[in-house]
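--- STAGE predict ---
source: upstream dedup step, 1 unique chain passed
mode: sequence only
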Amino acid sequence: MPDPQNLPPSDPSSSSSSSSSSSKIPSEIKNGNTNGNANFSAQKVRYPHPPDAANPDQATLREQWRFAIRQYSRWYSHAWGTAILAGLSFFALGWIIKGANPLPSFKNDDSSSASSPPNDANESRR
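--- STAGE serialize ---
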């Protein structure tokens, strides 16, 4: 069931709560009367860049499209360059902090074979 405070009052003398809540609303808004000199910014939205009245000609559209492609290509290449630079920087930082290669996948095979006993596969290759 809807909240009785959100419903418009059917009879102003029916309840005291509806009359007290309706007294908080200005009479211009309650009655639907608005003066021309009252400025309500929410009534009419004015866009800073309204749309064109007609579509531009083909040459203009082609020029705008080429400009957009150049901008996108520039941003794309900058993003890749930044990602590569950040990756190299973090790799170098990891190398400095650890004092050795920070990637475990690039270990030398000598250190892993010395710690573990050789298996049959390693012996068969020799």
